[in-house]
Amino acid sequence: MVPSIFIVDDEPSLLEIFSAFITTLGYEIAAVASNGKAAIDMYTKMVNKPDLIIMDHRMPIKNGIEASAEILAMNPRQKIIMVTADQNIIEKAKIIGVVDIIMKPFEMADFLGKITAMTGASGRHDSVVG
Amino acid sequence: MGQEHDRDPREKPAEKHGVDIDARRKRVRVDSFLNLVGGIFVVMDMNARIMLINKAGEQMLGYSSGELVGKNWFDHCVPPAARENVRQVFSRLVTGQIEPVEFFENNIITRDGKVRLIAWHNAVLRDEHGQIEGTLSSGHDITEHRHAEDLLKKQARVMKIINEVVTVCNETASFHELLYLVLDTVLDLLGLDGGGIYLVNESTRSGTLVCHKGLPLDFIETVMSANLDDGRNQDLLRHVPIFFEHVLEYKPEMARNWGFKLMAGIPLVSKAHLVGVLNLVSRSRDTFSDEEREILSLLGKNVGTAIERTIAEMDLKESEARYKDAYELASFYKDLFTHDMNNILQCLLSVAELQEFYKHDPGKVDALENLAGTIKLHANRGSKLVSNVRKLSMLEDSIVPIHARNLDDALAESVKYLLKGHPSKKIIVTTTGLTGEKVLANDFLVDIFDNILENAVRYTDRDHITIEIMVSRVVLDAGARVQIAFFDNGIGIPDDIKLTLFTKDRKSGPNKRGMGMGLSLVKKIVDKLGGSVYVEDRVPGDYTVGSKFVVLLRPSS
Asked: CB-based contact (8 Å) between B538 and chain A?
C-alpha cells in the first residue's frame, strides 16, 4: 500500500515543490493545507488518516506547534515531521511528540530520507538522490 | 501713699508697735527660706506694692537687695505693652471678682529692659477676718524653655512642610507631574498666589520656565527664559535664595504691571549644582517670616535633589527603552531572516533539485518552464525582502521628507509589480472610486500598497485571487483623509490577530502571524506620513472569506 502524506505549509511554492517530489517518487498526497487551523479542520474530517504529516512551523492563524499538538491530542500515534528554520522550537516540538524535525534550508535527499524512515517505504526516490 | 511706697513695709509693724520680736524672728526665717528658693517669690499688697521679694527675684529683675520693696510691681516689673491687661486681672483678683488663677504666664521686664517669660503660681493672702490683703506669687523663668519649645515647634512645622514636599517628590512618576505637585504644594502650604519652576543650564547660566501656576499670561511670556547673570539672579548661582519684600522698590515693573508685593527666587540645588529655580509671588503679602525663609531654603535642597534624581531616572528609562527597542529590532531582523529568507532559499534549493530531476524526463518540459518562473518569483521576493529591510532601517533612523504624491500612479505601479511577480496566478485587481487624488507622502508610498497587495496574493487558498481597491474621501476628527481600502478574498485574519497585526508587529515577531515584515513596514510608513492603517473582515463577522485593509492618508490639498 502506498504511504499517504499530508503537507502543511503557508508557502505556496513549497507546497507545490514538495508535492511534486513526493508524488513523483511514488507517495500519495493525502491533502495540503496552508495554515495550522486549516490543517486541523482537514485532519479532523479525514476518514483515513495520513501515514505522515509534513508540518511547517511558522504559519498564519495557527502555527505548526499548535496544530501538531492538537492533532496529536486527537491521535497520539500520528507521525509528524516538523519543518522549520527556527532552532528555538526544537525542544518544544519534541515535547509535544513530533517524531522528527528538519531544519530549513535542507536538501531533498535529507527530506526524503526522513520520509522513508518514518513511513518504512522507500518509494522511488533513490534514483533522484542517489 | 506715694511716699509710703518708698518705705520698707517689713520694718513698719516692728517700728510702729515696737515689740514683736518673735514676729521679726519669724520673718527673718521666712526671708532666709525664700532666699534659698531659685525662682521669684513676691508678695504684693492690694495696691500691687511689693511687700516682699526674694533675692533670686531681685537678681533676675536686676535690682539690688530691698530696692524693689514698696515699689509698684506693674510700673517696675511688667512690660508697658502688657501692663494694663495684667493690672486689670490683678485688680479683679484682689477684689474677689475672680478666683485666683493657679497657673499663669506673663512677661516681666528687667531693669535693663530685657523681657523674660515667667510661669506664675498665685494665691491670695487674707487677714484674720478673711479679707484679701494681698497676693503671694511664685514664678519660674521659662524664657529659655519657651524658646526651645518654640524652636522645636518651628522645626516640626518646617519638617512637616518639607516632608510633604519630599513625599510628593518620591511618589511622583513623571517629571512634569513632580514639578507641578511641588509647586502646588509649596503655594498651598505657604499661602502664596503663584510661581514657577525653571530648569537651569549652569554652563549657559540660563533658565527655562518649565512649569507655572497662578501667573498672568503676559507675565509668563516675559519670564519664559531667565538670564542668571542679571542683577540679583547671580545670588542664585551662588545657591543663595533671593527675597524681594519691597517689590516696588527692587522690581517696580513687577509691582506696577502685575501687582506683586512679594517675590522670591529659591535655588534648587543638588550635589552642589544649581538644577533649577523655584520662583514665588504674592499679591497680598508683604514679607516672608524667618521660618518661611528657612523652609524655602531647605526645600530648595530637597526639591533640587528630587529633580536631579527624576531626571536621572528619566534618562535611564529612556536609555533602557532605546536598548530594548534596539534589541527588539535586532530580534525582529534575526527572526525575519530566519523565516523569510530561509523559505526563499528553501524554494530556490528545492526548485533547483526538481529541475535536475525533471530535465531527464521529456514529459516535464512545461513543468520546467514553470519552475523557471518560480525561481524568478523567489529571487524577486528575496530582493524585495532586502529592500524592505533597508527601507525599514531608513525609516527607523531618519526623517524622510513628505510631499504631494499622485495616488493613481502609485497604485498602478504596485499593481503592475504584483502581476509581474506572480505570472502563473490568476489575479484580478480592480480600482474604483476617486481618481486624481494626491496625498501627502514620500517615495515609500508604493511600498505600502506593494506589501498589502502581496499579502493578499500570498495568503489565499483560492485559485482566483480578486482584489478590489476603493479610493474615497472621509472626514475624521483629525480632518479630511483619503481612504484606500483593499478588499481581498484571502484566508482572512481572526479577530485576536487583527488587534496586534500592526501594533505588536515587532515585539511578537513575524512568527506569531506568519506574515513576514510587510505589515511592519506598512505601519511604519503610514505612521511617518501622519496616516493610519487597520484591517477588518471583508464581510463583517466572517473573517474566513477575506480581509479589508484600510489605509488613511492626508490629502495634499
From this structure: no
Please tell me the distance from the alpha carbon of residue B393 to that of residue B380, in angstroms, as a whole number. 20
Contacts 24+ apart (CB under 8 A), B149-157: B154/B291, B154/B294, B157/B291, B157/B295
Partner A contacted by B441 (CB < 8 A)? no
- Given CB atoms, is B338 within the 8 Å cutoff of chain A? yes
Q: What interface predicted TM-score (ipTM) does this complex get?
A: 0.88
Nearest Cα residue in chain A from B345: A105
Q: What is the pLDDT of residue B29?
A: 66
Q: What pLDDT, in 10s, does the model give residues B419-455? A: 887 777 899 999 999 888 999 998 889 989 998 998 8
CB A52 within 8 A of CB A31: no
Read off the pLDDT of residues B78-92 as tens digits, 9 standing for 90 and up. 999 888 888 888 888
Contact criterion met (CB < 8 Å) for B338 and A85: yes
Q: How many CB atoms lie within 10 A of CB A34?
A: 25
Instruction: Give me the total of CB pairs closer than 8 Å, taking one residue from chain A and one from chain B.
Output: 82
CB-count exposure of residue B521 (10 Å: 0-12, 13-18, 19+): buried
* Residues whose CB is less than 8 angstroms from the CB of residue B327 and which lie 6 or more positions away in sequence, other chains included: none
Strand partners, B539: B542
Asked if the Cβ–Cβ distance from A21 to B354 is below 8 Å, we say yes
| A93 contact B CB<8A | no
C-alpha cell belonging to residue B364? 516535464
Question: CA torsion sign, B1 to B6 to B8 to B13?
Answer: negative
Note the pLDDT of residue B411.
95
User: Are A60 and B338 inside 8 Å of each other by CB?
Assistant: no
If you compute the radius of gyration of chain B from its CA atoms, what whole number of angstroms results?
Answer: 46
Q: How many CB atoms lie within 10 A of CB B244?
A: 20
Is any Cβ of chain A less than 8 angstroms from the Cβ of B493?
yes
**pLDDT single digits (tens) B96-132:** 887 776 677 889 999 999 999 999 888 888 888 888 8
Share of chain B above pLDDT 90, in %: 30
b/e map of B329-338 (b: 16 or more CB within 10 Å)? eeebeebbbb
Number of Cβ within a 10 Å radius of residue B477 = 4
CA-based R_g, chain A, Å? 13
B375-405 pLDDT, tens digit each: 888 888 888 788 877 877 777 766 678 889 9
Give the C-alpha distances (Å, rounded to integers) separating B491 from B22, B453, B465, B546. Answer: 127, 14, 11, 6
Q: What is the pLDDT of residues B228-258, one digit of tens each?
A: 888 778 889 899 999 888 777 777 887 888 8
**Residue whose grid cell is 496574493:** B457
Residue from B343, B344, B366, B455 whose CB has the most chain A CBs within 10 Å, to mutate:
B343
Answer whether 0.80 is exceeded by the pTM: no
